[in-house]
Amino acid sequence: MCILYVDGQVQWEYMTSEDGIRSGGDSDKIWYLKDAIDLYLKRVEADKRNGVFWAGGATTEDDFSNIDEFIESPTRLEGNGVRADDVYNTDDFKSMNLDASNTNNLWWRAINRMSKALAASASGDGKAYVYLKPINCRTIFSPPSQSPKDEDPNHNNQATNGEIWYYAELPMLMRNLNIKQIVSFHKEGRSFVTKVEWNADEDQAIHPRNELDDIAMDASPIMLPPEAGRQPLKRDVRQHGIW
Q1: Among positive and negative, which fits the CA dihedral 41, 233, 136, 156?
Q2: pTM of the model
Q3: What is the Cα–Cα distance from 205 to 211, expressed in whole angstroms?
Q4: pLDDT digits (tens, 9 = 90+) for 68-98
Q5: Which residues of 181-202 are buried (b: 16+ CB within 10 A; e: fewer)?
Q6: Which of 68, 111, 173, 191 has the most CB atoms around it within 10 Å of its CB?
């Protein structure tokens, strides 16, 4: 299935979940994916739609400062990039009767849908950017974990990425026809290091656009794959500054 949405501004293919079709909020008043996309397109100017994401792993306040610096740097995105917190605000959550002090399953349903919308709406210069420190050979395809770590004993001590990145954002970015490359970045000393982690054309044989499951974020509840090893969307802590 290939969908062109809002005069071609949002376009994707290989969708199986039918996300983005329903609108107006579900029975719990949580926005559907289409509602979140509509707000993104309304709030973010076309030249600023460079999506900036966070893959997970051990992250400090300095790391979040590095993400902000990369967005604002005159030699990088020159202010033309957005992360989730730049698009969706506290009032949006209040309109869905959600409170940050109670990060229940409804909260995480909204977060997952907003995150997928951010990936669906990204266009910019054909690239999406993800903050990823390559500790223990971590890549954008490293296994997901509810509590991502640089060494995760539950994943044979491999470095792990966050579940929202792996289940919501990465599959959507790969299906987003406006995105041709996913580029990782991190800081070493005073300089940023970037790497093309995925190229839609060159990596088609090993990482096709539909490689990862398209999980239905419009489902209630959102069902994670069996390998997640846990019930849907049970979360306790919101990461500071970005989700």
Answers
A1: negative
A2: 0.91
A3: 10
A4: 999 999 999 999 999 998 999 999 999 999 9
A5: bbbbbbbeeeeeeeeebbebee
A6: 173
